[in-house]
Design brief:
alpha/beta, binds adenosine monophosphate, 15 helices, Nucleotidyltransferase, domain 5, 2 domains, globular
Length: 398
Amino acid sequence: MKILVLNCGSSSLKYQLFDMENESVLAKGICEKIGMEGSFNKHEAAGEEVKTVVDLENHSVAVKFVLDALMNEKTGVIKNVSEISAVGHRVVHGGEDLYESVIIDEKVKKLIDQCSDLAPLHNPPNLIGINACEAIMPNTPQVAVFDTAFHHTMPKMAYLYALPYKYYQDYKVRKYGFHGTSHRYVAGRAAEILGKKPEDLKIITCHLGNGASICAVKGGKSVDTSMGFTPLEGLMMGTRSGDLDPAAVLYIMEKENLSPKETGNILNKQSGVLGVAGIGKSDFRDIENAVAEGVVNAGLSLEMFDYRVAKYVGEYAAAMNGVDAIVFTAGIGENSAARRTAICSYLEYLGLKVDGNKNNTRGKEIIFSTDDSAVKAIIIPTNEELVIARDTLELVKK
Ligand code: AMP
């Protein structure tokens, strides 16, 4: 059975076609700059990548282009669109009502639309992708897999903010958490790697990419996570501030006469390591290079990043009354030995001991703590697309 996984962003469309017989990826790619000048597609199949500059005026055109790339003589891996048994969509926000993967119908689409208010940059393009597929493949089942769903198991004391309760009742203002598909995947893999049942483990998963979040996974379930009502809360990130005193925001707004929109832009797009390092870049490789060149604030931004990750790990070890394993994933977590070393140096009190040689690994699964370490530290490359494909298969098989 072949399953197409789609991840529609505001101007991009990422895709992977899986053969679920052996969970192999037959083809994958990305359409970028959809609706803008210079739009293009990068398509990879059988180890070969083809870049095509093509006018992709909207997501429907991009979906059509992708299906053609999957079928055409040169880059194709299927002959007919009917070979695709189902489509799995990444949907960012499921709100309180959509808390597990579901087959998409009119009611589900309406609920996704209602959540657009909570995720205005993400849910609308997700829905456009769903509608585009529906128009082209009306008889192919489609499944939605939500970034928020894994965190549905958080207890109320963890997801509520200490605001007047009516704001939760009236506007559903609460912590939702994101990156759920990634946290779920790596926590599950960690249990497999450790040869234990998820129910018997307390795991802290650190998804450290351009967006970054941490999750406390107890008995296989998310019990707390660092992102909140939006992905702005929690860790310091590439361009997002993460936690700060809300009064500081109000103060800056008054001083600089800023609108809520302008302030949101500063907190989401101009803060984090970008804002502190001051080199006009947010990629950790650039920041680490700037440190080597002696840029003082670049070093400071990384110290702040590491410190904040370590503090959250401590918080979640307390929340779960212990921790068996700490997982590092996503671009920084999988690739930066320097960041893992710095973060883990704060965690010796937990009995964590790092094996320097094993930590010198990039992008592959490895337990990098020593054999006698009380807490295991593990690198696990995330695979959100595979989770989406598996959930889709599970639901369409029923
Ligand atoms: P992601 O959002 O998961 O794709 O992660 C992207 C981020 O990972 C990039 O912005 C980089 O900051 C970071 N990254 C990728 N490779 C490395 C590396 N070798 N060393 C440090 N950071 C890296």
